[in-house]
Amino acid sequence: MEATTTAEVIQEFAHIRARRRGRTDAAALGRDYAALLSPLLTIGQEDLRAGLDLFQNVETLGAFDAVLAAATIRADATALVSADVAFAEVTDIAHTVPDDDGVSALLGV
Known about the structure:
This protein is mostly helical. The protein has five helices and two strands; from the N terminus they run ααααββα.
């Protein structure tokens, strides 16, 4: 199985984790995720434009997540794994919740 993410997602993760676990822990884990999920997906102008269209049309999707969804669509990804249920409203991606059932489905278990 291949998996990737964007630098922006890792940055957001580190920002939130630092609130609970401190900057040293957040930065170390962020670096580990970047290494594990490399090569990282690059967000470009095309993703931004398509993401803003999604943002306009999907009321529950925030601007950041809309651009991430657009990049996921462009990359022709099998799934977008996120606990954010707003992704389920984007019809062009398969949204997977990272719970036991979702992970098992991705792993084919």
